[in-house]
Each structure stands twice: as structure tokens, then as C-alpha cells.
Specification:
about 30% strand; 3-stranded antiparallel β-sheet; alpha+beta
């Protein structure tokens, strides 16, 4: 019996998305069937892009996206029945945000943002775009 239990893996399922609302240029609102609702800013979504080429800089091996405080969302394109591709006004458009990823971001929003700000401070960077000379 114990051998069977060791092979058993609990399946954690993310709540099902019930509402997706794009509020350009600054927010996305998502709601899930467990009652969770999240308002995610364009900046937050941009810095947590799931894309490999999300215009990051490496500082001591740590990848950091900075200067995106004023980024906006231009559009969101459905990808199958599992997510969307968000097009930002800095022309980043390769990340596919799945419903599970939206739930993860929303559920951990404050911790993720706090850690992001700590990382920026650690490297002397800002959420604001660099000033042009």
C-alpha cells in the first residue's frame, strides 16, 4: 500500500479563468472561478514577461528589466484557449501569458513587485526610463 501512495502525486489545478478584461493602456483585469480577481498593471506584466527575449540586461548574472514604469498595453491577442499575447507600446510582443501564469502573477503580485524593486535598488536602477541626453 505504501508503495502505491509513493507513486501517487496530488494534482494541483489552477482555478479556471472566468473573465479577462483589457483596460488599455495600463491594466489587465482577470477573474477566476474561485473568486480571485486581480488587476495587473502594464509595467508589472511587462517586467514579468514569460518571453525569452524580453529586453533584459544582465548585472552580475542577474537578469533585470528596468525603466518600464510608463509602458502601455496596445493590444492582447488570444492564443488558443489557454492564454494571450500582449503587445506593449515598447514593441515587446513575444510573451504568451497563460491563464495559469496570470493566476500566479496575481496571487504573488506584492511579493514579486517588492522583490523587483529590491533588485532595482541593488543595481542602482530605476522603474523610470533613462533620461535622454
Amino acid at each position: 500500500m505504501l508503495a502505491r501512495l509513493r507513486g501517487f502525486r496530488s494534482i494541483h489545478t489552477t482555478p479556471r479563468l472566468t473573465k479577462f478584461s483589457l483596460r488599455p493602456p495600463k491594466t489587465v483585469e482577470v477573474e477566476f472561478d474561485n473568486g480571485s480577481a486581480f488587476n495587473l498593471s502594464a509595467e508589472f506584466l511587462r517586467i514579468h514577461s514569460p518571453a525569452a527575449d524580453s529586453k533584459v540586461r544582465s548585472f552580475g548574472g542577474e537578469k533585470v528589466i528596468f525603466g518600464r514604469r510608463h509602458v502601455g498595453i496596445m493590444s492582447a491577442e488570444p492564443i488558443g484557449n489557454y492564454g494571450v499575447r500582449i503587445v506593449f507600446d515598447d514593441l515587446h510582443k513575444t510573451g504568451i501569458y497563460t491563464w495559469d501564469y496570470f493566476y500566479h502573477l496575481g496571487s504573488n503580485k506584492f511579493t514579486l513587485m517588492r522583490n523587483y524593486i529590491k533588485t532595482l535598488r541593488k543595481h542602482g536602477l530605476s522603474r523610470d526610463p533613462p533620461r535622454r541626453k
